[in-house]
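[Q] Does anyone have a clean structure-token version of this?
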Amino acid sequence: MFRPAYFDNNATTPLDSAVLSAMLPWLESQFGNPSSRHEFGRAARRAVDEARQRVAAAVNAHPTEVVFTSGGSEANNLFLKGAAAALKPGLIAIGATEHPCIIKPAAQLAGQGWQVRHVAVDGSGRLNLADYADALLARPKLISVMTANNETGVVQDIAALASAAKPGGGWFHSDAVQALGKMAIDFRDLNTAGVQAMTLSAHKAGGPKGAAALILDKRVDLQPQIAGGGHERGLRSGTENVPAIIGFGVAAELAAQRVAELSVRLRVMQAKLEAGLSALGARIFATEAARLPNTSYFAFPDLDGETLVGKLDREGFAVASGAACSSANPEPSHVLRAMGVAPEISRGAVRVSLGAGNTESEISQFINALQLTVGRLQGLTAIAV
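[A] Here you go.
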């Protein structure tokens, strides 16, 4: 019996049952404030500390390097704005395909005396190394390059990029939100290479919305962006979201345990999906680059992506036409624009992002539904012409 298939895991993932079980007591009988001195508060503090240890262990960081935030966007803003507030204005270098929660705070800092340079990417979405080397000559004070792109799934060589930037003394940050649970992450190795900060988010890896973290080298001096009671090493004041943080800890631990097996299974499904897409005449973006094993970004000539997404939704398949955080923006993807994709092609872009709950049977059903849907839409396009 057919059931709707969820193919939008880069937007958010289903809550893992083990994560929900761990959270439930903290939504019911365990309600203490972690800053309170009585037993209710002490129990909450112990639970938050345990979650911090789990998140740290999942990416080989030290618990004291984990700063909890409400989401990846807040963590990215905390790094950029917090670092900028602690330094004299200079150059910020960011990848041209960064998430808007890096691009927009950088643009805000440009109005406060900072210069911002968008480092170019090639046609497959990989950072242009010649342009990056040129940017490093200007000795940027802040650098941010995402580990894995939310639209294309392209994976950057963060260790090599950070190592190249290290002699310049700038602070290097990577948005690793899409990487958790889909590829191995070792903050200690990255830190040795020159990465000072990294962003993670719970809901991209089987955890709840509302919990994320900035993994931060303690030698980096950030100015807090939320002032108050001095929570999170004084970097992020506000009563902790205890249930979500506990869920984050369990989700991160499970993600690290399962990543090797899951990535292999996802890669098999991705290959099957893309063979079907190619047979239907789709253009698949970034195939020459290293990519996450779950992400396929494609377009059909002369078909509108939003229209195709809507038709597929009615057929029982949840896919995306781009970044969920920017779904209100009707403009073509800035990621594809940076890759040199023509607007008439990028407007047709559709993203499939697979997760642990997907099956090869769903892939077959999707290709069949896509073939019928594309055929109908192309027939309508031919009549309109």
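[Q] Thanks! Anything notable?
[A] Residues 105 and 257 are 34 Å apart (CA to CA).
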